[in-house]
């Protein structure tokens, strides 16, 4: 059971990844971004998730430097993720994109590098590039994002190294049970993006009732539900009090009854693009 903000899950290659981290989707370059990353590290977060397409890797890198300094910890204690964008999928172009991300972040290696979307006809070449980077020790773990079961099956046919992570949209309205089961069977750790459904679940009455019972916020209930389901989660916030509040989920446990009620909210409803039908 996850008891602490710095508790980790062990990926299938024996790398430890924190169960909980900070996401920075749609946070633009500037002091707000730098401070969000700094606040997170200062307040005990050890995992930061960004992507090339977010256009904010430089600010994330600055925030990491400031945060490490302030917290008095080493780079090795932090788990940093970035992702290769669709226009860069391909063997050589993915290798080049990785160098660009690393330079912007001003880091010597990444802890996790992901293929951001399963672009047909392109993700296998990109995966070979990730395998190369992994073998070279430039990245500690490699994985995918937004892959459905059929994408994973297709990738696994030719992959030399199995993805360690599949980061997908995951929240009480989109519980992805079949995908989660497939990932578990194959030793692939599921990770949630948009765990709070971009804030759309905060007014949900069922969740509000459960939150009142535990004297917690709806966000805390959802994030705790993620963790108890064995899903790594990376809520996004830029405000220090919210960053702290999001992580205050380690002093209680949801009952199996409440877990089942939350599971029952599923409607297979996405707020993000459909991995089987996107055009970017």
Strand and helix layout:
Layout: E1 8-10, E2 16-18, E3 22-23, H1 31-42, E4 47-49, H2 57-71, E5 79-84, H3 91-105, E6 110-115, H4 123-135, E7 139-145, H5 149-158, E8 165-169, H6 177-185, E9 189-193, H7 205-214, H8 218-228, E10 232-233, H9 240-246, H10 256-263
Parallel strand pairs: 3-4, 4-5, 5-6, 6-7, 7-8, 8-9, 9-10
Antiparallel strand pairs: 1-2
Helix pairs in contact: 1-2, 2-3, 3-4, 7-8
In percent, how much strand structure appears in the residues?
15-25%
Topology as a string of helices (H) and strands (E): EEEHEHEHEHEHEHEHHEHH
**Mass-distribution shape:** globular
Please tell me the overall pLDDT: 97
| Helicity range | 25-40%
Work out the count of structural domains.
Answer: 1
Quickly give the structural class.
alpha/beta
The CATH fourth-level homologous superfamily: NADP-dependent oxidoreductase domain
Question: Rg to the nearest angstrom?
Answer: 18 Å
Strand order of the largest sheet: 3-4-5-6-7-8-9-10
Counted by DSSP, the helix tally is 10
Number of strands: 10
**CATH fold call:** TIM Barrel
